[in-house]
Specification:
- This is SWIM zinc finger family protein.
- InterPro entries: Znf_SWIM (IPR007527).
- Keywords: Metal-binding, Zinc, Zinc-finger.
- It comes from Paenibacillus oenotherae.
- The chain is α+β, with helices and mostly antiparallel strands and about 475 residues long.
- It has helices at about 5-10, 15-25, 80-90, 105-120, 135-165, 170-180, 190-200, 210-240, 250-255, 260-265, 360-365, 370-385; strands spanning about 35, 40-45, 55-60, 70, 95-100, 270-285, 290-300, 305-315, 330-335, 345, 350-355, 395-405, 405-410, 415-420, 445-455, 460-470, 475.
- It has 4 domains: about 5-120, no CATH class; about 135-250, no CATH class; about 260-355, OB fold (Dihydrolipoamide Acetyltransferase, E2P), CATH 2.40.50; about 370-475, OB fold (Dihydrolipoamide Acetyltransferase, E2P), CATH 2.40.50.
- It is about 35% helix and about 25% strand.
- Strands 6, 7, 8, 9, 10 and 11 form a 6-stranded antiparallel sheet that branches. It has a 6-stranded antiparallel sheet with strand order 14-13-12-15-16-17, covered by helices on one side.
- The relative contact order is 0.08.
């Protein structure tokens, strides 16, 4: 069994409540029996429950990085608190007695091996993954429905531009909300969410000038999505055999949910990657009706900043695992990279955790961009595209963080300044209230993860400090 840490066990828990309950079981000595096989690939035991009979639980590590949880309890939570408690007991040093593998688990292992062999045999042949067969008639039918939906959206956008945002009243907003529901029949949930975002913006109370500025920005984004989406879909309708768009996020922005098999087929799977999380935040996306657990990770070999997004729709939030901060390095056997730049979304099925060491922190600092001018140029070139990520994140090296009046600036070795002027995430604590509490050494010759956003009112780039990376730790300023 690979060494497991508390951070790894925490990452397996579906939510914070399950983590707490699992730890509490260990504190209360609820495990009268704790066992481990001689090869240390299986943990199993018994946990006291509400009935006379204890729950029999196990965690099987026969496949590294992909543990199998089993428990006799009726909980719908997966993994349940009993299997988590079993892992916490091991991590916290509770004694496990050596024992043979139970017959019922041995049988399940054997069946799993046969299923895997059958799967591998069917995927053999020339050694390549079989390509998916596309039903052309069904695809064309779907594309026509999408084009019809974009046509409806285009008419609405033109009406809004012609009448002006200042003429919007409650009746017009109600019409827009009806259009949002109508777009649900046209297989373009991404475009539907963008229109809902416009409705939410225009329904906001407060400074109307600010609301209009944000509304104009969203209208520009909608117009670009309609124009590029129609062109792309018309081309695919004429040539259904054409490959899907992978150089941009257009497919996802229209609403396509990428499958791992598709990403592998399009060559977007990378082997053996090490990732370290630099920042994490959970927020609510009202336009899409979901909670989002977002993490920003650095590839310790390439220096690329990737993002992970765990999406929990409002209606199913209780049934979906809630992600949390990760303080360990994740070693993935296969990393799936979604289309998009500069912070492409990533995902993995199997991964092992290892503790972070000073070598990793120094590696992150060495990967940070030394010149603010080059970073700003890259950000500006990216945001020229209306469909680009509104909040690109970069890893930069700074010589000092300095306070000037009520604001802070980042300064690089060339003397270029980068004002920290924004609190982009409304739910986060402004970094300005934390920076005075840091030691002086943390603010000199370090690296920082920063988020940019174009302020349409001032025409300037707004900057949010997310994390500071030193030789010995990561100081997270966004949560």
């Amino acid at each position: 069994m690979a060494s497991i840490t508390e951070a790894y066990v925490d990452s397996l828990a579906p939510n914070a409540g399950a983590m707490k309950n699992g730890r509490d079981l260990v504190k209360k000595n609820s495990f009268p029996l704790l066992c481990m096989t001689g090869d240390e690939t299986l943990l199993f035991g018994e946990c006291k429950g509400s009935g006379k009979e204890p729950y029999r639980c196990s965690v099987d590590f026969i496949q590294q990085g992909n543990p199998v949880f089993r428990c006799s309890c009726p909980s719908r939570q997966f993994p349940c608190k009993h299997t988590l408690g079993l892992l916490y007991a091991h991590v916290l040093g509770k004694p496990f007695e050596k024992s043979d593998i139970p017959p019922e688990i041995a049988d399940k292992r054997e069946k799993a091996v046969k299923r895997e062999e059958k799967k591998n045999a069917s995927a053999a042949g020339d050694g390549e993954s079989p390509k998916r067969k596309v039903n052309k008639s069904a695809l064309i039918k779907k594309i026509n429905a999408q084009l019809e939906g974009l046509g409806i959206l285009e008419k609405l956008v033109l009406q809004l531009v012609q009448s002006g945002l200042g003429g919007l009243d409650k009746k017009t907003i109600q019409v827009m909300e009806d259009q949002v529901k109508q777009l649900g029949n046209h297989y373009i949930p991404g475009a539907q969410a963008e229109l809902r975002e416009l409705v939410l913006i225009m329904s906001t109370e407060g400074d109307r000038e600010s609301v209009y500025s944000r509304g104009i920005e969203q209208l520009i984004r909608l117009h670009a999505l309609i124009r590029k989406g129609k062109s792309y879909l018309e081309q695919r309708a004429a040539q259904p055999e054409l490959p899907m768009e992978t150089e941009s996020m257009l497919e996802e922005q229209l609403g396509h949910a990428w499958q791992l098999a598709e990403l592998r087929e399009y060559g977007r799977a990378r082997p053996e990657t090490e990732l370290l999380q630099l920042s994490f935040i959970s927020y609510t996306d009202k336009a899409r009706g979901e909670f989002v657990d977002a993490g920003w990770w650095v590839d310790l070999r390439e220096g690329t900043i990737h993002t992970t997004r765990n999406l929990r729709p409002f209606r199913a939030a209780k049934s979906i695992k809630e992600e949390d901060t990760v303080h360990a390095v994740i070693q993935t056997g296969e990393l799936f990279v979604y289309p998009g730049a500069p912070n492409a979304r990533v995902r993995w099925e199997k991964g092992e955790f290892r503790d972070v060491c000073e070598k990793d922190y120094r590696a992150v600092k060495a990967l940070a961009a030394p010149s603010f001018a080059d970073v700003i140029k890259r950000v500006k070139n990216g945001i020229k595209n209306p469909l680009a990520d509104k909040n690109p994140v970069m890893l930069i090296a700074f010589q000092a963080v300095e306070r000037i009046g009520d604001t802070y600036i980042l300064r690089d070795t060339q003397g270029k300044q980068l004002p920290v002027t924004a609190n982009i995430w409304a739910a986060s604590l402004h970094s300005g209230s934390i920076l005075p509490l840091l030691h002086g050494d943390d603010l000199k010759d370090q690296a920082a993860l920063v988020m940019f956003r174009h302020d349409i009112e001032s025409g300037r780039l707004a900057v949010q400090l997310m994390s500071i990376i030193t030789d010995r730790r990561i100081i997270r300023l966004l949560y």
